[in-house]
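Table 4 source record.
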Amino acid sequence: MTADAQLARRSLSQPVLEPPVPIADPVRRRRITLAVALILMISAALRLWQVATPAEYMFDEVYYAKDAKAIVDGRVGPKAPLRWEAGDEVSWPHPEMGKFAIAAGIVLFGDRAFGWRLPAVIAGLVTLACVYPLARRLGLPPPWALIALGFAAADTLGIAQSRIATLDVFVGVWSVLCILLALRYAQGGRHKRWLVLCAAAGGMAVATKWSGGLALVAAAILIFLVWLHDREPVAEDDGAEPAYLLGDVPTARSTFVGALPGALLVVALFILIPAALYVFSYVQYFASGHTLADWRELQRQAAFFSLHLKAVHTYASAAPTWIVDYRPVWYYFEGGKMFRGVIAMGNPFLWWVATLGLIAAPILALLRRTTLLLPTAIVVAVLYVPWFATSRTSFIYYMTPVAPFLAILAAAALVAFAGSTRLPRHGVVVMAATAVATAVLWDPVARLAVWFFWRLPRSVSPTVGWIDVGVGIFLALFLVIMAVSPWTRRWRPVVSMILAGAIVGIAVAFLPIVLNIPISPGHWSHIMWFRSWI
């Protein structure tokens, strides 16, 4: 094994949350910057393409866009008999920051679809712009961080949420910023301004939806993990005491007790700043004549609603099923000779790989000391797993703040599978070719699968169906065995690039039902892989 290969393999087990090493080569740095800019420009074009269609309200826009217009008109004052309600607002269970963002679009571009949805487009693009630096700070080298950005750009849930005037995309952008700023604070010298900004971003998430508070929990855990790492003794002269995380500077010498004020500072900022921003989100509510007693009753009613909502909904689903794309949500659908619609669903290949990465993260950390997946897996778990405890009506689009981290986790999983952080020779070409092939060939492959597993057994005999099932199981087991076999280890870097290309390319199959493009019923049926997607 060459020295470079040994170094690449060792980087899989480097200390958790090590600060990223800057790119020294200016040419390489410019190329990475141009690649990031290109992905963002393509993503902006997709999000803006006919964003004003349909021109009517889609799904919960009937609440949030209407309420944003009520905010613009000043129709949030008290009304008898329920003084605590925010005037004509219907979405009173949620704080106002997200609705303020939608209202800003209405003020600038009018009470029409483009005005409602443009703030969501901007929030989605800012979220994407954070993915590359997030991936770097979570342990991925530059090429794989760029691939993680490509995965996030190819995530159909992110595209859909960036084209609808609802709150989740704003929870997502503030959550991503909160966690990025926490890493910037923890890995970059512990300057307090980054901690303040982190708390402010988390506060904006909470002031959009209460679930945004999970971002603050994830940020605190990441800071704590870096703190634990920095408490380990370092080689210093003259028998100096070990360095700790929460000092004012990285070289601060202290005991655990000496670090306590810094820990208390984190806790205080993470409580006081979000609380202040949360109350500030109701500035118009108070200015319109509501009292503090009205506000307290509003919070009590919102808590009861959030904890006990039991409404029956066609597209409701249990939280554990979200990550495997079990039950998407159709925001809009129109039938006839041509079908058109807008669906909220994750990129299936991306989310399934991320699911495997989430399962593999603790196993690899314990058995192989591969820690690359661990930080991102922790963030995903903190943002996602608490939803398992809820019994209220819930939907897959609550995964919007989690989705960017699924992209990073999927990229990290492919790195772990490849066994090296270095891209194979011509790896980018392999990935691009696979993406194009997947985008072009998914339809004939889908038709062949339907014929083999469905139409052929129905036209011949049920026995053929069981044979087909056996063939499918054999192929799946064969692929799994080949994937983990030591004999195929030398090919894993290339296979990882093929998988990366397939993740990006399969997004093309679902773009019509994310961008509201008319398609034939036959086309539609070929991308409805499971009955639960309909």
